[in-house]
Write a structure and sequence with these properties.
The chain is about 30% helix and about 25% strand. It has about 210 residues and is an alpha/beta fold. It has a single domain, classed as Maf protein. The longest helix has 18 residues. The chain is globular, with a radius of gyration of 18 Å.
Length: about 210
């Protein structure tokens, strides 16, 4: 039997680790861009997470046949009118880093009280097969921005994102716990349900959209 492969269209190793962990047990070999398309990159130009994820998935589908999952995600802060949004990864300038991005957020929110520091993480995943969009999955989680980074786990804005139900930042949560509540974890949960339904469907196609909730 030929093993099915799922290409994760990202070079962010933190995202790869989280998605692989969340899809554990699904009968797919999960591979990254460096495994099949080393050196090839796609520049994000969309105005929404959905636009970016779709464009990325379709771009790589022209270079590689098979099942591809592309994702775009980011942080939206109420006091900053939704910024950094789709610019989350490059918010601090032409040579961004997680540390620089976090410092900029803290600087912009320096005078904002706790009640005004509401934020949410958003993730949109797009599944493509043979050049056609199969399905889109969305997950989000609400919290607030702390005043100092806390925790050494995770990546990106995780040290700043305080999740009230668990009274911890995302960077203070063990990976398995974070995956159960995060925006990415929630999107992957929908993806997982879809893939498991597809496995049980008759040969020749994915399950109907109504079979698995978006």
């Amino acid at each position: 039997m030929i093993e099915r492969r799922l290409l994760l269209a990202t070079r962010n190793l933190g995202k790869v680790r989280e998605i692989r962990r969340a899809l554990g047990g699904v009968p797919l070999k999960i591979i990254g861009l460096e495994d099949v398309l080393p050196g090839l990159s796609h520049k994000e130009r969309g105005k929404t997470f959905s636009e970016n994820a779709r464009a990325k998935a379709l771009y790589y589908s022209r270079k590689w046949d098979g099942l591809i999952l592309a994702e775009d995600s980011g942080l939206e802060i109420e006091a900053l009118d939704g910024a950094p949004g789709v610019r989350s990864a490059r918010f601090s300038g032409p040579k961004p880093s997680d540390e620089k991005n976090n410092r900029k957020i803290l600087r912009l929110l320096r005078e904002v009280p706790a009640a005004g520091r509401k934020a949410r993480f958003v993730c949109v995943m797009v599944l493509v097969k043979n050049g056609s969009v199969v399905r889109e999955f969305r997950g989000e989680v609400r919290g607030r921005i702390g005043r100092t980074p806390q925790g050494a786990s995770g990546f990106g804005y995780d040290p700043l994102f305080y999740y009230p139900p668990l009274r911890r930042t995302f960077a203070e949560l063990p990976p398995d716990v974070k995956n159960t509540v995060s925006h990415r974890g929630r999107a992957v949960l929908k993806l997982r349900a879809f893939l498991e339904a597809e496995k049980k469907a008759p040969p020749g196609g994915f399950p109907d959209r109504a079979a698995v909730g978006r």
